[in-house]
Design goal:
mainly beta, flat, 9-stranded antiparallel beta sheet, Jelly Rolls, disordered N terminus, 45% strand
């Protein structure tokens, strides 16, 4: 019956812009991951409100809050909700004081049962004029049920936006601060680096006392990081760490008080040898990461960071990393399901519980890779734990799946740990038993069907 999809889509003046790097949280009890409402996927009209693609709940005490990462000028909203309920969509700049943006009534929309997509954009086929609103500045968008049959749901939330200054919104990293600090943590990723020697407690800096606070930058997806430029207070020690799943962090480099070039105030440093701010002591080998953490480790108890930029200008993501692809996990598992399509294949024999692997116990868990559109699938390359059986299936509509091939514990070449296999005869990892006739598919599902009850997959990629 119910499900609400709010899709936040960034749009330019005449053409749509990239989606915001948004995150979502629930205030109150709900079922399924709140981040489903910002995963960019709209289920078909009429989908059941309790579908795995929906965040659903009972009662009017629950709310879902989307954080856009920074204040944006919201010009349009597209969402999907259950057809027979009333919802309130609200906005806020600070996440504390919310105002009504528009109300959805049970009589709006076009379907007679299940999830219903609606948009405030007059150019959308799902346009509902009753929810049209005047553009507002907001960082947080909240949605809550206010009346209906006590069965409510949200599956997606997307906004069309410009930044608060009126420029087209751009997808980019978000920063979250933990502990007590001064000024907005988003300053760390605003692209503005103050002048060398700027005071540590300047309004352009995020500053704090003690070594408890820390800041986490979310790049939005796992990517290769080979270069970091940052600006910190000159006479302190800072540790920069990285993670793929946001749980297990490893050291990337440490900034010492003796590094840099200024004698007082904020000091810019870079791991890029071509940068005028290059500091060779902090150079590191490239890593795959989604999250970057920075924290103070010692000094004069007065700490600050004003900017942190990361990336790899020369890195071109693999065809299956991004580019409209996504992956969803169903059932209990460990580490971010996005690792399955990040383009990074761990070394043969890597432990099945490594941070680069998605691992689980039992045969009820499965993963669905959405290729973004129906396409020809001629070959598949994957890496799974070596002593188990897995089934790979394909579908055009995400509902009816057919067997593509089965991986047996006896296949592959390693005796322990993760094993890479390919259906391509030209690959060094070719396993002839997996060969299949090309198919047309949008969705690929992988699941374990037997073994030692300890299963893992680290990568799945497709080609023509």
């Amino acid at each position: 019956m119910k499900r609400l999809i709010l899709l936040l889509i960034l749009a330019a003046l005449l053409a749509p812009a990239p989606c915001l790097a948004a995150s979502a949280r629930a205030v109150g009890p709900c079922n399924n991951d709140p981040n489903l409402i910002v995963d960019g996927k709209f289920p078909p009209q009429g989908t059941a409100w309790t579908d795995p693609a929906c965040v659903w709940w009972n009662g009017t005490a629950t709310a879902l809050v989307v954080d856009l990462g920074r204040v944006e000028r919201i010009t349009a909203v597209t969402l999907q909700v259950d057809n027979n309920d009333d919802y309130a969509v609200e906005y806020s700049e600070d996440g504390k004081s919310f105002k009504t943006l528009f109300l959805i009534r049970a009589s709006y929309g076009e379907v007679g049962w299940g999830m219903d997509t609606m948009s405030t954009d007059p150019g959308s086929p799902d346009y509902v004029p009753e929810i049209k609103f005047t553009p507002v500045n907001a960082r947080f968008i909240g949605i809550k049920a206010i009346d209906g049959d006590n069965c409510y749901a949200v599956s997606e939330l997307a906004v069309s936006a410009k930044d608060a200054a009126g420029h087209d919104g751009q997808a980019g990293p978000t920063v979250t601060g933990y502990g007590s600090y001064n000024n907005d943590a988003s300053l760390i990723a605003d692209g503005v680096t103050p002048a060398q020697g700027t005071a540590w407690n300047d309004s352009a800096c995020v500053w704090w006392h003690g070594t408890q606070p820390y800041f986490v930058m979310d790049l939005g997806t796992v990517t290769r990081v080979s270069k970091v430029t940052l600006q910190v207070d000159n006479n302190d020690e800072y540790v920069v760490e990285y993670s793929q799943d946001g749980k297990i962090y490893r050291n990337l480099f440490t900034v010492r008080p003796s590094f840099g070039e200024v004698g007082w105030g904020m000091d810019t440093m870079s791991t890029d040898p071509s940068s005028p701010d290059y500091v060779h002591q902090i150079e590191f080998p490239p890593v795959m990461a989604r999250f970057i953490k920075i924290r103070a480790a010692g000094g004069d108890d007065c700490y600050a960071v004003s900017e942190l930029t990361v990336g790899d200008p020369a890195y071109v993501p693999p065809a299956n990393a991004g580019g409209g692809m996504s992956v969803s996990g169903y059932g209990p598992f460990h580490n971010d399901a996005a690792l399955i399509i990040d383009g990074a294949v761990p070394a043969q024999g890597t432990s099945w519980t490594d941070a680069a692997c998605v691992w689980w116990n039992g045969t009820k868990t499965f993963f669905v890779v959405d290729l973004g559109m129906s396409r020809r699938v001629g070959n598949v390359r994957l890496q799974v734990d070596n002593n188990d059986d897995y089934v790979v299936e394909y579908s055009e509509d995400g509902k009816t799946y057919r067997n593509l091939f089965t991986v047996r514990a006896s296949y592959g070449e390693v005796g322990w740990g993760m094993d890479t296999m390919s259906t391509d005869p030209g690959s060094p990892d070719y396993v002839p038993e997996l060969r299949f006739a090309p198919v047309t598919a949008r969705y690929l599902k992988i699941r374990a069907i037997g073994g030692d009850d300890c299963y893992a997959v680290s990568e799945l990629s497709v080609s023509d």
